[in-house]
């Protein structure tokens, strides 16, 4: 039984099963372009595979939940990078130097009381 590894970004989480194979990738039982609908997000998902040089050698099955499509693509990218390190520990320095193993900490800022939005203030009137 292959290991299930996770990746996360914003409020999205991705569970990854990586096995050696022919390069088939399924995201929630669909191909990545059909699921994400944008080529730049598919390129982000494929970035760890291209960086490690194993583009057509591994099969990936992913289950993603939470967040929007951009956060889900980031979560999938991190999950694939973690799975590749588990699959082949020699890839760790390459993926780490590319910044693919680090979780992106940026989230939506909370609304503060007394303000119109996160940082926008109400119009000031002197008189």
From TrEMBL:
One of its GO terms (biological process) is translation. GO terms for cellular component: cytoplasm; small ribosomal subunit. One of its GO terms (molecular function) is RNA binding. Keywords: Ribonucleoprotein, Ribosomal protein. Gene3D superfamilies: 3.30.230.10. SUPFAM superfamilies: Ribosomal protein S5 domain 2-like (SSF54211). It comes from the Bacteria. Belongs to the universal ribosomal protein uS9 family. NCBIfam families: PRK00132.1. This is 30S ribosomal protein S9. It comes from candidate division WOR_3 bacterium SM23_42.
């Amino acid at each position: 039984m292959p290991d299930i590894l996770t990746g996360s970004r914003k409020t999205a989480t991705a569970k990854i099963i990586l096995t050696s194979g022919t390069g088939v990738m399924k995201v929630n039982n669909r191909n990545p372009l059909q699921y994400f609908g944008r080529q730049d997000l598919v390129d982000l998902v494929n970035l760890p595979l291209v960086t490690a040089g194993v583009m057509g050698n591994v099969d990936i099955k992913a289950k993603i939940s939470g967040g929007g499509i951009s956060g889900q693509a980031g979560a999938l990218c991190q999950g694939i990078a973690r799975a590749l390190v588990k699959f082949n520990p020699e890839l760790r320095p390459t993926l780490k130097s590319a910044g693919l193993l680090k979780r992106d900490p940026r989230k939506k800022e909370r609304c503060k009381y007394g303000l119109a939005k996160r940082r926008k203030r109400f119009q000031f009137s002197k008189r």
